[in-house]
Amino acid sequence: MRLAERDEELRVLTEVLDASGRGTGGAVVIRGGIGCGKTELLTVLKSRAADAGFLRLSAVGSWPERRSPGAVLSQLLCDEPMLAACRSVVGEVVKRAAEAPAGGAPFGEQPLDSATAAALHGLCTQVTRTAARVPVLLCVDDVQFADPLSMHWIVHLLRVLRSARIMLVLTDCTLSRQAHPQLHSELLRQPHYVALTVPRLTPDGVTELLSQALGDPLARELGGQCHAVSGGNPLLVRALTEDHRRAAAVFDRAPTQLVVGESYGDTVLSCLHRGRPVLLRVAQALALIDERHTDPGRLARVLDEDATVVARAIHALENAGLLDGGRLRHPLARKMVLESLGVGERRALHNWWATALYEEGAAATRVAEHVIRGEAVACTWTVPVLREAAERYLLANRAADAHACLDTALRACDDDAERVVLRALVASTAWMLNPSMSARHLGELAVALRAGRLPDQHALKLAKYLLWHGRFQEAGHAIERMEARGHDDDPAAGGELRATRGLLSATYPGLVAALRPGPEDAADPRIRGVASLSHVLAHGPDDRAVVDAEAALRTLRLSGDTQEWLMCAVSALSFADRLESAAIWCDHWLGEARARHVPLWEAEFSSLRAGIALRQGDPLLARRLAQVALERVPAESWGVCLGGPVANLVQAAVDIGDHQAAAEYLQIPITEGVFNTRFGLYLLHARGRYHLAAGHPYAALDDFTTCGDQMRRWEFDHPTVVPWRSEAARAHFAVGDQQRAQALAHEELEMTGPGHSRARGVALCALAAVGPSAARVGRLTEAVENLQKAGDRVRLAGALADLARAHMAAGRPERAQPVLEMALLLADEAGIAASLGDLREQAQRIAALRTASRLPEAAVAALSGSERRVAALAARGCTNREISERLTITASTVEQHLTRIFRKLGVRSRQELPAETVLDA
């Protein structure tokens, strides 16, 4: 492979080589970053030297051998037959150096005894004598790692070099200074000394290098990306080329984007391991902090290194193209460098970073990031910093990070009183992410509450958590203890208690009784919001409840202290038939919950919005939202509130007509505690509707009756919440108890007023279904009017379908047809056509009957017997082939009959054929 952008360097090296061959010894030092092409230049030079008849002697310095006496010298002189006499001398010198007391001292600090000096001089003489016969090229790669003994010999050689046919080439990858100042000083004395610096490749150079492997068009396309990722380091460019080739082999085509893969990552690590260990340590620390322009002094404190050494290491990494502004150039490079750290090393490094950042007064979140990922930092500042960081993360909508801070603080804290508060805070953030995560803290918090060590605001939250997880008795004790404390001298705490009890009583009515709001509570939007829901649940919708709900929604802002009260206010609007307003508000809060990245809030608002969608007659949307609710928070983490999303799924499936899906949703495991919540009512109603639709009226009746009993017991018994009487009426009718069915339907209708459009429409539909047929059209007509006002497309489509059937039963197909067409249109829009049975067939029958009523009797009478039989089968929907098989005639004969039938009856298609009953008359 041709070297890119190295023509000038090769020209200079070749000139020195030629001059050395003529007897003018020369020395060249090639400096440059790791992987920037110094070794490649040596390779090309050695090839040219071989062509020119030079004897080539080579050695490579390495960090592990930098203290091994004669490591480089042995490589240079001991393997060349022409210098066989040197082998024993080198062996003696190495042995003597190894036995010397200062054998491991750096070059320049190790004293050289006279015997060793004489031996080294003799070795130089051997080389110069050989050079008299054949020119010699000596190459030492990575001379910065050469051992002291070898360096002494190289300095000796430089002193006799100028008049010998010897060229000495050294490559040096230093940390921004000369690795061996004594060597540098000797080099400067040489008249034919040349210093070359190998820069990184420019974008054009990268493109040139790529074109040799990938071709010009692709190289031009990828050159810019490759330069950005490689930093112009030729070794990394070749690694990226290899990644590209591998990808092309895997996919059988050349990728059009830059592929950064395994070869690149391995080469980055290889570059770091080729330098001094401090390079890798600095790279690891920089990868961990992942910031631009990290202060070398801070980094030195983290690594416990000299600041100058660290600064040189950063410069060396930048010079090699591995860093860009103090950061590794690509995420894969960072990943590989971090993976080179052991678990213990990584934790320790995080701890060092945390301490350094704290001492500099860095932001709490920056410090906390490293405390969390490190081992326990036993410092007085750890817990306060973590708590401050948690508060900042919550303000920034990063609940997961806040939870990590508090959890780490809890483990680091050794103060019992503070641990109680921290545990409560951990439970609170865990709750926002996944309620199941909070369960492990509830026992100790309950113990702290009984001991009087849990602050009031956390005690109320504890009651909510315990109820959610079905630990009703413990929750009751928590509430009783809170009430027993008394809050006469603390109005704020009293208001908090009333707001929380109001919330809990609306969700767990059989377990928690609401406290009557006081005059001072009128200004608390949370109490107004939950009071509006409680009023609608008990008495049905009215204007006051709507005003209170909307006031709460306009005043409150979404937070951990308001989210559940906001849901109550939205629910109040939904039950009050303000569905459009409820949907708008719920969508608003759902969007905020998503933006805040709080899974529980998103799940609960999704489930609430699904319930609103069901009331609007949009079961497809309801099902999607209910599924989202169970994706954001798994079913097993919903506790006793699981009835909400499951009920929505079942209701949506029943509305759509997908009974198999409804049955599968009902297999989701739930606890008995669900039926102690308001959501249990929804589940009983949904399950009963499924049983009724699936042909199990007794099972349905059991669910509806249980639901009704519970609602009466809780004084939530209003059809705007759950229309259980209407459904129970249908179930009674299905088992033959028409009297009880009518009584329940009448009772529910009487409970609805003019403002209860949806509930009244549902009750009228039920009464029409179970009552006398003579009143059916009138009741269904009124039901349609109410359901149109309510905006429930599913219920409206069903009412229209029933009204069309009633018109048909009354012998008025001309009235039935437009009603049925509207029902079909709504059913298609809502995606519920399957749930309305043979509605489309009925529409075709009505159209056929209306056509038949317009046909002259003479036209029908003009059909022959065989034509009437063909027409009857065609009207049923039979194909020509089916007709031919049934009547034992050919398909051609069927076609001929149909042509004559259409002409005689004056119709244009099968759909306009009279109903078979008319044709068969």
From TrEMBL:
Residues 856-921 form the HTH luxR-type domain. GO terms for molecular function: adenylate cyclase activity; ATP binding; DNA binding. It comes from the Bacteria. The keyword Amino-acid biosynthesis does not apply. Keywords: ATP-binding, Nucleotide-binding. GO terms for biological process: regulation of DNA-templated transcription. Pfam families: AAA_16 (PF13191), GerE (PF00196). InterPro entries: AAA_16, P-loop_NTPase, Sig_transdc_resp-reg_C-effctor, TPR-like_helical_dom_sf, Tscrpt_reg_LuxR_C, WH-like_DNA-bd_sf. The keyword ATP-binding applies. One of its GO terms (cellular component) is cytoplasm. This is HTH luxR-type domain-containing protein. It comes from Streptomyces violaceusniger.
